Every structure is written in structure tokens, then in C-alpha cells.
């Protein structure tokens, strides 16, 4: 059992006309993590499903495919999962994987049953996940951040010194279309993805975490000459259609998980937006 909210895709000409409340309703994902529950948002943007699972005393099961018209959830889908909470585990068709904070798991198509558990119910694991349609089964793989491809970039003078860790990508743990990773900002750095970019052939979801309750990220979205901001709090995600930039600045340090889906998996297939052209 899980809760699934459906969101539709939007034309950029409509995006310009939205109020703050409407922008938040369409693009911000606020309540992913509820104790003892699996919550999801299904967006029609590349049919990506974004979810959160917080198992406490009981194991949470992701199996049901009714909402997506399938025999079971991963019948025609794949999923990338990263634990952002305390120690927990995932059982994929009987195979158990222990996941510490920041450990990831890729589970391929045709896996019938996924179970999420926490080692300590009073200090639970928090599993953030992104699922995309799939056409082929790739092996299940646990991902340690140390084995990922790490790219260090930015500088303290630009307030954006950070490391991009690629968890699921064509040169690492393989998938049909999901590309997923985590970006960790160095202490005293607050900007991500600036200079920013567009990738016409992929949508992206940013999920921000590891910040105090009263902090926020001022996330920028929209076409480069029609930007809007959206205030994103701890453990919230934001959907970025392919016409939208995605970049943010925090009131404090934070970490985020990015995930992409669409036409290709080429991380470098991006159009940089010159700084001077942003409006
Ligand atoms: O298309 C790539 C994604 O936007 C992110 O990987 C960028 C990012 O993590 C960063 O610059 O901090
Ligand atoms: Zn991007």
C-alpha cells in the first residue's frame, strides 16, 4: 500500500502565468517522508515516479502495480533508491541489502517485491527513490558512494565548491534510462548548478536534504529569460521539466540528490546558459 499523487506536464508559456501557490502545487514535492508510509508523486513529465519510504516497526512493501496498470510495481519499471536516514535495509525478491546513510541501490525491471526496513524503528531509515519506465532488466546493485564517479568542481570564492557523485549512469551502475546521483557541497558553500544549464532531452528532479528545519534553498526554475523561484525546505523535491533551469542557493549548507530521465543518458548533453543571459 502506498499513496500516489499525480501531476501533469506543463507548457512553459503557462508556467509564466502562475502564482507562487500554483508553482508550488505543480512542481514542489513536500510530504515524501511519513513514518510508516510510502508516499509517491507520479509526474507525467517522462512518467517519473518520485517517492519516499520510512519504515518503522513494520517492513514496508512496494509491490502493488495497480496504480500504474501493471501486475506489480517494477514489471515495466526500474528504480534507484538512496538512504538519507539511519541504518536500514532493502529486500529485493528475497535478497537483502544493508543500507547506511548515502548508500544507494539500483533495482532493475522484473523484480516483483521490494521490502524496506529500519534497523532501529525509533531512528528509522529514510529511503528516497526515483523510478522510471524500463524495457530491459539490469542487475540489482548496491552502490557505495566511494565506488561512484566523483567530480569535484566550483570554488569557495564562488560559494559553490562541491562534489558530484554519479550513482547510476552509463559508465557505472547501468540502467535503461534513469541517471541518478548526489551532490555534496563543501562547508560554507551554498550554490548549486550555477552557471546553470538546460537539457532539452532530459527532465530532472532535485531533492534537497541535510539542512535544519528553518533553512531553505531558493531554487530557481523556468526558462532562462523567465526565471521564478521556489522555496524548498529540508527533504523536499522539485520537478524540473526539460525547458527549465534548475539551480539553487541555500541559506545554509545542504546536500541534494538529482535524478534524470528522458531521451538519452548522456550527462554531458547539456546546453549551458551564459550567466549574462539569465533574467
Ligand atoms: O544535469 C546535471 C544536474 O543538473 C546536476 O548533476 C548538477 C549538479 O549536481 C551541480 O551542478 O551541483
Ligand atoms: Zn541538469
Helices and strands, with pairings:
Elements: E1 3-7, H1 12-15, H2 20-27, E2 28-29, E3 38-43, E4 48-53, E5 60-62, E6 77-83, E7 88-92, E8 95-99, E9 104-107, E10 114-118, E11 127-133, E12 141-143, E13 149-153, E14 162-168, E15 179-185, E16 191-192, E17 197-198, E18 202-209, E19 217-221, E20 228-232, E21 236-240, E22 247-250, E23 255-262, E24 271-272
Parallel strand pairs: 1-3
Antiparallel strand pairs: 2-21, 3-4, 4-11, 5-10, 6-9, 6-11, 7-8, 7-10, 9-12, 13-14, 14-15, 15-23, 16-22, 17-24, 18-21, 18-23, 19-20, 19-22
4-deoxy-L-threo-hex-5-ulosuronic acid binds next to strand 14.
- Number-wise, the strands total 24
Number of domains: 1
Query: What is the architecture at the second tier of CATH?
Result: Sandwich
Q: In what order do the strands lie side by side in the largest sheet?
A: 1-3-4-11-6-9-12
- The CATH topology name reads Jelly Rolls
Helix content: under 10%
Molecules bound to protein:
4-deoxy-L-threo-hex-5-ulosuronic acid, zinc ion
Can you identify the CATH class?
A: Mainly Beta
State the fourth-level CATH superfamily.
Jelly Rolls
Low-confidence stretches: none
Task: Summarize this structure as a short list of keywords or feature phrases.
single chain; mainly beta; 2 helices; 24 strands; binds 4-deoxy-L-threo-hex-5-ulosuronic acid; binds zinc ion; 4-deoxy-L-threo-5-hexosulose-uronate ketol-isomerase; isomerase; zinc
Structure explained in plain terms:
The protein has 279 residues and is mainly beta. The chain has a single domain (3-277), classed as Jelly Rolls. It is 4% helix and 42% strand. The protein has helices spanning 12-15, 20-27, and strands at 3-7, 28-29, 38-43, 48-53, 60-62, 77-83, 88-92, 95-99, 104-107, 114-118, 127-133, 141-143, 149-153, 162-168, 179-185, 191-192, 197-198, 202-209, 217-221, 228-232, 236-240, 247-250, 255-262, 271-272. The strands form five sheets. A seven-stranded mixed beta sheet has the order 1-3-4-11-6-9-12, with no helix packed on it. The longest helix is centred in the first third of the chain and has 8 residues, at 20-27. The N and C termini lie far apart (44 Å). The structure holds 4-deoxy-L-threo-hex-5-ulosuronic acid and zinc ion. Zinc ion binds next to loops. Catalyzes the isomerization of 5-dehydro-4-deoxy-D-glucuronate to 3-deoxy-D-glycero-2,5-hexodiulosonate. Zn(2+) binds at residues 197, 199, 204, 246.
